Amino acid sequence: MSLGRTTLGACSTLLIVGVALACTMFSPSQQETEKSGRLEFVKTLKYGSVGTHGSKGWYVSNREFRVNGRGWAPPDFDVNEDIGSCEADPVQEIEALRCSGFANFKEASYVLTMRDDKPVWTVPFLGEHNGKSKGEFADDGRSLVFKDYLFDIATGSKQPVLGAPDYAEDDFRSLSPDRQVIVYQGCCFLKIEGDSDALVELKSKTWAKSQLRENKGTEYLWVIETATGHVDILELRTYQYEWLVWNQDRFHTRREWIEFYRQKLVWQKDDAGRYRPVPIT
Questions:
Q1: Taking CA atoms, which of 49, 89, 110, 193 is between 20 and 30 Å from 155?
Q2: What is the pTM assigned to this prediction?
Q3: Whole-angstrom Cα distance, residue 213 to residue 220?
Q4: Rounded to 5, what percent of the chain is helix, strand, coil?
Q5: pLDDT by residue, tens only, the chain of 281 residues
Q6: Pairing of strands 70-72, 55-67
Q7: What's the CA gap between 175 and 142, in Å, rounded?
Q8: Could you tell me if 44 and 58 are in contact, meaning their C-beta atoms sit under 8 angstroms apart?
Q9: What is the DSSP string of 36-54?
């Protein structure tokens, strides 16, 4: 009987160890990939213990770039630690990934693109954290829009922007084909360090106007000349232009809505040859 109990105990121990090893080896995992041409950003997620109280959940176990299917990383850069997320350029013909993260307690925006069939890594923004400086893709996918400049993805050059009322992440809508006019949408922009007196006054007047009862259902488009900072305000009624407001039942992602939005806000040249946005119903 003693031998039987010993054998049973040993088998039980082996069974427990085997199950533990199997769970470790075959724990649920999955990958999420953001792909642009030959460029990929791959996140590996695993299901297991998270936090300090033994709860279970999905967590990111690894992040990596791949170029032509092979692992790649910028020199002296820890992709797994310093990159939070990446987004592919919405224009399929352009190979580019825009990424965001934090390095040395600063917010950063990164771009991985291809030039002469080689991967090129650039840093369009590195500065104090505000949560809104990853850069937004312009209509043609060739530029990233920041509050004070446009970043050319192909060349890495910057074009100054004057007169923008806020950071681009929430309120930028469209950029003219010649990059000379930019459109923001909103009524209630706060004063930001560096704003001109004229811009602060225009923010205040627009906010006050939006609070009037007769202006309920009005959206305000800021049409800004990037070189001079001159602003014209278009006042549009949402009952006539429903696409001005993101209907999440119809458009499940913001990208889908913005793509439709830009089909409805058409760029046309005026008599002086300048691009102007024209809303259509």
A1: 193
A2: 0.84
A3: 15
A4: 20, 40, 35
A5: 444 444 444 444 444 444 444 444 455 889 999 999 999 999 999 988 777 777 888 878 899 999 999 999 999 899 998 999 999 999 989 999 999 998 777 899 999 999 999 999 999 999 887 778 899 999 999 999 999 999 999 999 999 999 999 999 999 999 999 999 999 999 999 999 889 999 999 999 999 999 999 999 999 999 999 999 999 999 999 999 999 999 999 999 999 999 999 999 999 999 999 999 999 99
A6: antiparallel
A7: 11
A8: no
A9: ETTEEEEEEEEEEEETTTT
Contacting residues for 27 by C-beta, under 8 A, at least 6 apart: 46, 47, 48
Q: In the 8-state DSSP scheme, what is residue 193?
A: T
Beta bridge partners of 87: 98
Q: Which helix (H) or strand (E) holds 71?
A: strand 70-72
Q: Tokens 């309920």, residue?
A: 216
What residue spans of the chain are helical by DSSP H? 2-25, 79-82, 168-171, 197-210, 254-264
Residues 59-88 as b or e (16 or more Cβ within 10 Å = b):
eeeebebebeeeebebeeeebeebbeebbb
Q: Which residue shows structure tokens 């009037």?
A: 212
Other CB atoms within a 10 A radius of the CB of residue 199 amount to 21
